[in-house]
Design goal:
13 strands, six-stranded antiparallel beta sheet, NADH-UbQ_OxRdtase-assoc_prot30, seven-stranded antiparallel beta sheet, Galactose-bd-like_sf, Complex I intermediate-associated protein 30 (CIA30), mainly beta, NDUFAF1
């Protein structure tokens, strides 16, 4: 096992355009999320979830050059949240339709969350699939989504995303 490898570390020079925002307007919803860099150099994923027009989610994702990750076993994310539930997601291939997802509840203080690859379940458009959990051979995309089924404002501060 290797120690750890950085997947994305935010800093004052980070370009938020390296992350794509996907709001539920892709299917008619009215939620609005964005990602910015705060004065401390951390990424801030924030916005408002609306349930109007069958909406209810905001997501940010970062595409990677597909890389082997077989010598690692978990993601390690350093975040400060708002007490709400989020999900961390990944894809092993750029043309893969489903993602692997892991739900976590944020806290209002800085914390390090460890996400074992083997606990990330295959999902497509929010539905669990009868596929094996993430096998951790390759990594092509990382994402964070909020989709709690309630109308709410949200803020998640992100310092780093690593694999270990």
């Amino acid at each position: 096992m290797n120690d750890s490898k950085s997947i994305f570390e935010f800093n004052n020079k980070s370009n938020p355009k390296q992350w794509q925002v996907v709001n539920d307007d892709v299917m008619g919803g009215l939620s609005m999320g964005l990602i910015q860099i705060n004065p401390d150099g951390n990424g801030v994923f924030s916005g408002h979830i609306s349930l109007k027009n069958n909406g209810g989610f905001c997501l940010i994702r970062h595409d990677l050059e597909r890389m082997p990750v077989g010598s690692f076993s978990k993601f390690v994310i350093k975040i400060k949240g708002d007490g709400k539930k989020y999900a961390f997601r990944c894809k092993s291939g750029e043309h893969q339709r489903h993602t692997y997802s892991y739900d976590f509840k944020s806290s209002k203080k800085w914390e390090t969350i460890e996400i074992p690859f083997k606990e990330m379940e295959a999902v497509f458009r929010g539905d669990e699939l009868k596929l094996p959990n993430y096998h951790g051979d390759y990594l092509a995309q990382i994402a964070i989504i909020i989709k709690n089924g309630v109308e709410e404002d949200f803020t998640l501060e992100i310092e780093s995303i690593k694999i270990k």
